[in-house]
Structure formats: structure tokens, C-alpha cells
């Protein structure tokens, strides 16, 4: 259908970039992309954020979602007809009972990776190798979560199940890879100070659960570390929420002014109450590997942004400005608050998490600014390190 963007090699230092193949208007969708593989975060699932095991679509109705986040089962949402959740379509794996939003997702998971990963009746057996792996991961990687060992498990399972194994290995090898020291830095960031011992423990558990002769390189210390770094560098956060879907639908209603004001006030209050009760963890969250999105370079003044408006893993890249044919399409790896900070602070975050120094127009224009962070910035330092590790969690 004549894609609006294509990946091109820029230089060995920068790797690939994504470029517009035609003029794109502000507000236009540049592309919609499915991940090669994705997975919900483990604590997120444990805390009852119920999502389709394949596409991460939220499974609770908007009302159930709000009731759980508020800790209040009596809450009633107006306009229930605007909730998009279809419980009549939900299906479970008959062997292990994980839940899918539809027959299509159950089938897609089964065909791609679930035959290998289905725990069957061992789903609650703590001694099963896959459960031991997940438990070890949860004990190393607390919320806010930025990655999941199950993303790597699904990569291995996908290749194990595939008829054309080489095709998948090639698909995974498209993602940006790093040198040994860079890999070490990323893994360090994901696992913290005890990373060498933890990485070895994970590797042994990963091997026990999933070893495959064909992929033997991935199970060596070097291969496992690069697999880890690949997911740490390229993983894109995915957030879904039936409540936010419902809110978007409410926003689109054509209401008389008084009713509009009442509904807006109700929604504002609801979010305030939820924040008191559940903090910032509103969404079903996971991460995925997206071939095109992973080619997007960072800019502190991005001309595009990613979001998940379909309440599942389908990533929409939307233009924030008019983009001309031939122009590079950039997203921001920093959230709005981080983008407002000094060049020095922005680059500190980018170097620590993505191993590069930014030279976007904004950073070049601020190149002569003093390399100190202002006092109020210092206070904010260190609070959000974990949350910054992966591409910012996208509002849905």
C-alpha cells in the first residue's frame, strides 16, 4: 500500500534511521506495526492487570478496571455502552488456562510460541523450570518494570516451533546490536549491581527451561548477554487500558454543555482518586520488539510519537509535525518532563540508558549552555532511573 516510511542505513555510528518516503501531514498515522514478539511484564500480570496473553489487550471492562484500581467494587461508570471489551469473545488455552481476547489470538500464540511454553497442569507448580525462571526474574526486576525474561523465552520458543528457523533468526538479527562492553552496561542497568551473578543464575534457569541445540549460541554466557542487551536496547513499552479507551470514547461524545462538564468533572475526579490508590500504575504493561519502530532514532524535539490507541500491541506512529519526503522520522526516548530538562541532564539519561550522546538541533543549539544541572533538577535526579530504561511507557 506504498508505505510512508522506510528504514535506511545512516552510518556505522548511528546505525539505521527511518525516513519519510512521501510528504506526511501533522496528525497523520505514519504506520501501524505489530511486534515480532511481545510479552506482558511479570509483576504486572501477578498484580491482576488482566491482559490477553498474546496481544496484551486489556480483558477487564472499563468499570471492573476502575473498580480494581480504586479498590472500590461499588463504583458505577456512566455510559457503559462505550466500553469496548467483548467478554463473549474471550478464550482460554484448554491446557494451561491462560486467557486470550479472541480465538484469533489463541491461535496465533499457539502457532508462534505457545506449544513450547504451555505449562499445562504445571501452571501452578513452583518447581517447573519456566516458573523457576519467572520467579527468579521477578526477584531481580521489581516495578517499575522495563523488560521481561519472557520476551526472550518467546523468542526462543518461536524459533523452536518454526518450520523456517532461519527466517526468524534473521528477523531477530535486524535489531540493533551492541559491542561486548555496551552489552555489559545495558545488562548492568537491567539487573543492578549484582548483575554478573544474577545473569549467570538466569542463564542456567533459562537453559534448563528452554535449551535448544539449534540455538546453542544464545545459551552461552556471551550469547545470552547479547540476547539480553538486544531486548534491553530495542524493547518498546506497551500499555493498554480499557478505562482509557472508555475515557477516549467519552471525550468523543457530543453532549449538551452541562452534561459535558459533569462527565469531565467525574472523569477528572476518578483519575485523582485512582492515583491516590494505585499511583502511576494504571495500564496493563509489557514490551515488544518492533522492526520499524526500532529504527526510529531519538530527538529531543521529535516529529513523531508512538501510541497504542487500539488497546492492544498494535503500535501507531503518528506525525507531530508536517514531515517532508526524505526527512528523518524521529521519536523521543525521553518523556515530556525529561525533555524539558537541560541538555546536560537529557544526555546523562540517554548515555546511561541508550549509550549515545544526542546531537539533535535542540542539543546543538544548547551546546554552549553550562554543563551543570539546575538545583531543582538535581532534586529530581535518580528518582526515575528505572522508568527511563525503556522507551517511555506510552499513554494509550
UniProtKB/TrEMBL annotation:
Q: Does the keyword Methyltransferase apply?
A: yes
Which GO-annotated molecular functions does the record name? Answer: histone H3K36 trimethyltransferase activity; histone H4K20 trimethyltransferase activity; zinc ion binding
What GO cellular component term, any one, is given?
A: cytoplasm
Q: What is the lineage of its organism?
A: Eukaryota, Metazoa, Chordata, Craniata, Vertebrata
What UniProt keywords are attached to this protein's entry? Answer: Cytoplasm, Metal-binding, Methyltransferase, S-adenosyl-L-methionine, Transferase, Zinc, Zinc-finger
Q: Where would you say this protein principally sits, based on its record?
A: cytoplasm
The catalytic activity of this protein is classed by the Enzyme Commission as 2.1.1.359, 2.1.1.372
Instruction: Kindly list the places in or outside the cell where this protein is found, as annotated in its UniProt entry.
Output: Cytoplasm
- The keyword Methyltransferase appears for this protein: yes
Residue ranges of the region described as Disordered: 370-396
Instruction: Identify the PROSITE patterns for this entry.
Output: SET
PANTHER family hit by this protein: HISTONE-LYSINE N-TRIMETHYLTRANSFERASE SMYD5, SET AND MYND DOMAIN-CONTAINING PROTEIN 5
Gene encoding this polypeptide?
Smyd5
Q: Which reaction does it catalyse?
A: L-lysyl(20)-[histone H4] + 3 S-adenosyl-L-methionine = N(6),N(6),N(6)-trimethyl-L-lysyl(20)-[histone H4] + 3 S-adenosyl-L-homocysteine + 3 H(+); L-lysyl-[protein] + 3 S-adenosyl-L-methionine = N(6),N(6),N(6)-trimethyl-L-lysyl-[protein] + 3 S-adenosyl-L-homocysteine + 3 H(+); L-lysyl(36)-[histone H3] + 3 S-adenosyl-L-methionine = N(6),N(6),N(6)-trimethyl-L-lysyl(36)-[histone H3] + 3 S-adenosyl-L-homocysteine + 3 H(+)
At the top of the EC hierarchy, this enzyme's class is: transferase
| A Pfam family recorded for this sequence | SET
* Origin: domain of life: Eukaryota
Q: Coiled-coil region(s) at which residues?
A: none
Q: Name one GO biological process term.
A: regulation of cell differentiation
Record protein name field:
Protein-lysine N-trimethyltransferase SMYD5
Where is the SET domain positioned along the sequence? 5-334
Amino acid at each position: 500500500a506504498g508505505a510512508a516510511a522506510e528504514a535506511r542505513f545512516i552510518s556505522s555510528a548511528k546505525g539505521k534511521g527511518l525516513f519519510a518516503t512521501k510528504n506526511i501531514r501533522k496528525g497523520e498515522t505514519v504506520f501501524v506495526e505489530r511486534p515480532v514478539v511481545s510479552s506482558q511484564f511479570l509483576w504486572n500480570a501477578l498484580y491482576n492487570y488482566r491482559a490477553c496473553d498474546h496481544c496484551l489487550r486489556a480483558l477487564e471492562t472499563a468499570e471492573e478496571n476502575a473498580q480494581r484500581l480504586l479498590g472500590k467494587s461499588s463504583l458505577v461508570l456512566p455510559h457503559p455502552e462505550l466500553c469496548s471489551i467483548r467478554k463473549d469473545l474471550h478464550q482460554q488455552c484448554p491446557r494451561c488456562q491462560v486467557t486470550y481476547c479472541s480465538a484469533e489470538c489463541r491461535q496465533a500464540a499457539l502457532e508462534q510460541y505457545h506449544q513450547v511454553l504451555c505449562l499445562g497442569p504445571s501452571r501452578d507448580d513452583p518447581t517447573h523450570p519456566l516458573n523457576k525462571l519467572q520467579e527468579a526474574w521477578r526477584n531481580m526486576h521489581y516495578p517499575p518494570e522495563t523488560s521481561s525474561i519472557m520476551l526472550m523465552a518467546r523468542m526462543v520458543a518461536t524459533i523452536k516451533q518454526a518450520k523456517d528457523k532461519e527466517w526468524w533468526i534473521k528477523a531477530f538479527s535486524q535489531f540493533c546490536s551492541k559491542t561486548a562492553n555496551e552489552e555489559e552496561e545495558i545488562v548492568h542497568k537491567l539487573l543492578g549491581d549484582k548483575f554478573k551473578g544474577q545473569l549467570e543464575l538466569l542463564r542456567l534457569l533459562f537453559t534448563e527451561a528452554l535449551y535448544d541445540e539449534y540455538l546453542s549460541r544464545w545459551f552461552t554466557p556471551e550469547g545470552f548477554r547479547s540476547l539480553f542487551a538486544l531486548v534491553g536496547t530495542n524493547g518498546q513499552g506497551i500499555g493498554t487500558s480499557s478505562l482509557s479507551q472508555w475515557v477516549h470514547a467519552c471525550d468523543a461524545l457530543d453532549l449538551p454543555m452541562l452534561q459535558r462538564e459533569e462527565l469531565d468533572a467525574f472523569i477528572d475526579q476518578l483519575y485523582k482518586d485512582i492515583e491516590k490508590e494505585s499511583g502511576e500504575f494504571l495500564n496493563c504493561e509489557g514490551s515488544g520488539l518492533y522492526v520499524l519502530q526500532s529504527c526510529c532514532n531519538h530527538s529531543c524535539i521529535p516529529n513523531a510519537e508512538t501510541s497504542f490507541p487500539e488497546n492492544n500491541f498494535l503500535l501507531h506512529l503518528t506525525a507531530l509535525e508536517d514531515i517532508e519526503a526524505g526527512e528523518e522520522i524521529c521519536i523521543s526516548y525521553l518523556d515530556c518532563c525529561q525533555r524539558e530538562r537541560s541538555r546536560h541532564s537529557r544526555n546523562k539519561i540517554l548515555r546511561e540508558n541508550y549509550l549515545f550522546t544526542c546531537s539533535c538541533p535542540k542539543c546543538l543549539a544548547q551546546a554552549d549552555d553550562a554543563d551543570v544541572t539546575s538545583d531543582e533538577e538535581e532534586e529530581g535526579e535518580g528518582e526515575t532511573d528505572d522508568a527511563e530504561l525503556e522507551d517511555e511507557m506510552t499513554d494509550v
